Amino acid sequence: MPVFESVFESAAELPERPALRPVELPAAVPEGGQAAARRGLVPVVPALREVLPDGGLRRGTAVSVAGGDAGLLLALAAGVRETEGGWAAAVGLPDLGLSAAEGYGLDLRRLLVADDPGAHWPEVVSVLAGAVELIMLRPEGPVPPKLATRLAAVLRRSGCVLLVAGPWPGAVLRLGVRSGRWFGLGDGYGQLTGRQVEVVAEGRGSAVRGRTARLWLPDEHGAVRPVQQHPVQQRPVREQPQPVAGPVEPAAPLVAAVV
């Protein structure tokens, strides 16, 4: 069975606590998070609300992130901190950068990690769905429709949101980065400071026509925000676009061209 790792602060670094302590009131939930909770949604960061048909991630559903874009995956998951529980999990994502996750807003003290569940990933997702509000997942290989249907029933019962890095049969929403440019490089030198992308969302129901938004993902401070705010005057580096729907082919080596 896979081993779950909880990313907590080291116990040695924490002060001693009494055996019994008063129950603390939960931290105040931001206004946007309260409104999303009332509508049965997991909140997202403000910059992503406009591109999502409901302004958040509907509980008990699966959302596909085309190409498995790590920045978009983390940005979508970051709003889980505004929920009452605030717990999230990452399954089958051994290359997930925890520093980047924290930069996007995830609370590492409330993140469960199952790096390599192998063929047992469906069982891992089923167990975690009853314990966390959101799961980030990269399945091992193509997902059979029957398996996706069984897990969809698990999600509906638990109210957990499943963010899938790649295609997912029956996903209610598909998001992807259609185009992107990195900023910060000069003529063969410099440091990457931010990425401008065009995010597109499409799916079923109210999302069938699709929505797009141009965002910093991330900006020079590691935040997600609309492009029109405080533009950075630096030379861009083009990035290969990713399809929003359909099977994902193995990524070719990225070749950057300074324009």
Tell me the layout of helices and strands.
Blueprint (H helix, E strand, L loop, with lengths): L4 E2 L24 H8 L2 E2 L3 H4 L7 E2 L3 E4 L4 H8 L10 E4 L6 H7 L6 E4 L6 H9 L4 E4 L7 H14 L2 E5 L7 E13 L4 E14 L7 E6 L8 E2 L9 E4 L20
Parallel strand pairs: 4-8, 4-9, 5-6, 5-7, 7-8
Antiparallel strand pairs: 1-6, 2-3, 9-10, 9-13, 10-11, 11-12
Helix pairs in contact: 5-6
What does this protein structure show overall?
The protein has 259 residues and is an alpha/beta fold. It has helices spanning 31-38, 46-49, 70-77, 98-104, 121-129, 145-158; strands at 5-6, 41-42, 57-58, 62-65, 88-91, 111-114, 134-137, 161-165, 173-185, 190-203, 211-216, 225-226, 236-239. The strands form two sheets. Strands 1, 4, 5, 6, 7, 8, 9, 10, 11, 12 and 13 form an eleven-stranded mixed beta sheet that branches. Strands 2-3 form a two-stranded antiparallel sheet. A hairpin with a 7-residue loop joins β10 and β11 (211-216). α5 packs parallel to α6 (145-158).
Which descriptors apply to this entry?
about 260 residues, eleven-stranded mixed β-sheet, two-stranded antiparallel sheet, 6 helices, about 20% helix, about 25% strand, globular
